[in-house]
TrEMBL record:
Pfam families: M20_dimer (PF07687), Peptidase_M20 (PF01546). Belongs to the peptidase M42 family. Residues 165-259 form the Peptidase M20 dimerisation domain. Zn(2+) binds at residue 60. It comes from Candidatus Roizmanbacteria bacterium CG10_big_fil_rev_8_21_14_0_10_39_6. This is Peptidase M20 dimerisation domain-containing protein. The keyword Metal-binding applies. Binds 2 divalent metal cations per subunit.
Length: 367
């Protein structure tokens, strides 16, 4: 309980992870495990019997903002224990996972693992995944040739009830359409209306839904395109003025069959419409691990009741997939507690996760 309480008490909203990283660094250092810094991330290697295999655990230390304080029944930065539950911001997503890895580190100083174990504590997951991207690039550059087998476990919240093996990629776009501005009393002189120009563009993009249907992925399913997840034009306080611009956002969920083609298709659809296209954030690819992969099999045996499935949202698993590393997601936090007020985690699951992670290491390590 000590780790989770301490972790919740340290403010670590994305971009402000320095203090929590200092705490994790000190705790690992106290154990004599020699943590290293890779950018703002922390990596730790625990040498195992078989130095040709590495199992890499990944936990993000950042949280989303706490949101409206009125919706919280307790102070989000003060860990509050009620029975087996610990309330606080980031409790499930995913400080419970971080705590289970700190417990695992403590265990691994007394017990030699069957394979090399790596713990990556990363920043910026809730923003753009740049922490995992950075640590994976660093790791592959340094160790790709050293190991014969590498696999990963991300400790995102699944309540230990799901083993997630994939997710679709995403591309977020902003469209800007232009029109004539003018006085509301003179619609006759408005030749180009920004909102109608946007509607034309959206109609064109709607056709991609049908075109992309052929790209079906057995595990991840079909891509989707969500049009106008937000739209904005003019000023609600100036009903007598035509808007000269209209902006809309679009959310595309991709699968590996079409991820690389998606932007080209979008650009082709918008050709000659006079609409500007901006890519918001760096597009993230899909995450995908074969359900027959040895790590999935070992984990399923240890969690016989857990469901093998895909995750709806995007995770840092895509950076493992990008590097060709099979990875799964299973963690002690509660999935229904992600990004909500009154977030909590179940303390006993932190302990359980640590014990099961150790078994996964020992069983996967000797395969
Ligand atoms: Zn998370």
């Amino acid at each position: 309980m000590e780790y989770i309480k301490k972790l919740i008490a340290i403010h670590s909203i994305s971009g402000d992870e320095q203090k929590v990283q200092e705490y994790i660094y000190d705790e690992i250092n106290k154990l004599g495990l020699g943590p290293q810094k890779v950018g703002n991330n922390i990596v730790v290697r625990i040498q195992g019997m078989n130095s040709k295999k590495a199992l890499l655990f990944n936990a993000h230390v950042d949280t989303v903002p706490e949101g409206s304080l009125e919706l919280w029944k307790t102070n989000p930065f003060v860990p509050t224990v009620r029975g087996d539950k610990v309330y606080g911001l980031g409790a499930s997503d995913e400080k419970a996972g971080v705590a289970s890895l700190l417990l695992l580190a403590k265990k691994l100083i007394t017990l030699k693992p069957m394979c090399d174990v790596w713990l990556h504590f990363v920043v910026h997951e809730e923003l753009d995944g740049s922490g995992t991207k950075e640590t994976m690039r660093w790791f592959m550059k340094q160790y790709k040739n050293k190991y014969k087998h590498i696999a990963g476990i991300l400790v995102e919240p699944t309540g230990l009830e799901e083993i997630q093996i994939g997710h679709r990629g995403n591309i977020f776009l902003q469209l800007t359409a232009y029109g004539d501005s003018g006085h509301g009393s003179r619609p006759d002189i408005i030749n180009k209306h920004a909102v109608f120009e946007m509607v034309k563009a959206l109609h064109e993009l709607k056709k991609l839904e049908k075109k992309w249907r052929k790209y079906n992925d057995q595990l991840l399913g079909k891509p989707t395109i969500a049009l106008a997840t937000s739209i904005n034009a003019g000023d609600m306080h100036a009903p007598n003025k035509f808007p000269d611009t209209c902006r809309a956002t679009i959310d595309i969920r991709t699968n590996p069959q079409m991820h690389a083609l998606a932007l080209g298709d979008i650009k082709a659809s918008l050709q000659n419409l006079g609409v500007d296209l901006d890519v918001l954030y760096t597009p993230a690819g899909a995450g995908k691990t074969d359900k027959n992969n040895a790590l999935v099999t070992v984990t399923k045996k240890l969690f016989p009741k857990a469901r093998i499935c895909i995750s709806q949202g995007s995770t840092d698993q895509c950076f493992f997939t990008e590097e060709g590393i099979p990875a799964i997601i299973i963690g002690p936090g509660e999935k229904e507690c992600m990004h909500i007020s009154n977030e909590y985690c179940v303390a006993s699951k932190i302990q359980k996760a640590q014990q099961q992670y150790l078994k996964i290491i020992q069983q996967w390590g000797i395969l």
